[in-house]
Amino acid sequence: MNRDLYIDFAKGLATLSIIFIHTAFWSGQFYIIPELRVFSLVFDVALFYALSGITSGSNIEKTFYRLLKLQITYMIFVTLLFFLDYFFKIFGLTFFSLEWLQNFYSTFGSKYAATSISTAPQWQNLGNWYLHEYTNADTFPVVMGSFWYLKVYFILTVFGVLILRFFPKHINWFIAICIALTLLFNIFPEIYPNGQVGYVAFYMTVFLVANKMKGKTIPTKIIPVLYGLVAAALIWMFWYFGNDIFFKINKQKFPPKIPYIIWSLFSLTTLFVLYNRLKITKENFITHIGKNAIFFYFGQGISSSLVYFLVVPLKENMPWWILMVLIYIVNVILAFIIATGLKKFDAFGWKILEFLRLKTASK
Known about the structure:
With 363 residues, the chain is mainly alpha-helical. It is built from 16 helices and no strands.
């Protein structure tokens, strides 16, 4: 079966959008105007959950094997991250001073400035990372700040494949239940649960609706109706919540509340409208990113942390929009280089694991 390059293309565009979002909302907090930071959220993480729904099936063994491989790749990456963070601190304390390190970390702003730096490795952080408790990585704060997606993805995929496998005739019921829970949590915010429940209620809807779309094409005559409904929802949002809700969209994202859900409808509608309609016949730079999306997702966390050190000295010396374009281009280039290196390091890690397996396997 030939690979659907539209899926890779959409993943690639979504990944580039995530890099722009993290350019705007992390180092961009120092210089990018609030309006553009909000507009960066038009094409956001919901697209990844929709694409996962389109590509998922009811094969439990295959899905769990894919998740196991992803977990091991993730563990290889965070192990590398842990030692990079630790050795950088040792380097700073050995050749410079504690004050130099604290000044270095202050570049990220007071919220992410490291307060306790020691020569002893914080092994508990590595253990927490393995179990998806994302305590901050001082040297690369954007990495753990963007990993909430991965935990939700694991939970969503496990429950999603179970629904597809055991309740294939009742998927519409599960979509209705998830919509009802999302509405209930928003109508009665005092009962909105902590943890991942709110995330899963909405993103499971996206996942299952996308799965129902697999192999289908939205009729041309329906497209204006869909975009009309999206426009009506946006008008209602501003009427009901007031114009100030525009500047609060990002705060409505964690966990997803009605304004953010409405804000994400345009990108999801566009994804489904172009599915099986936009034909990508040749591989290109964007499909390459899509094929290696997980390594770019890992890499952009590091690159989005590094660009802080360009933003701080340059933000007073050029117009904000020129700096934004420059930083975004640099961020994409760095993410590409880092992702390429991470893919090779991942292959090296798997070779070590295979060597250990062979040495420890019972004969």
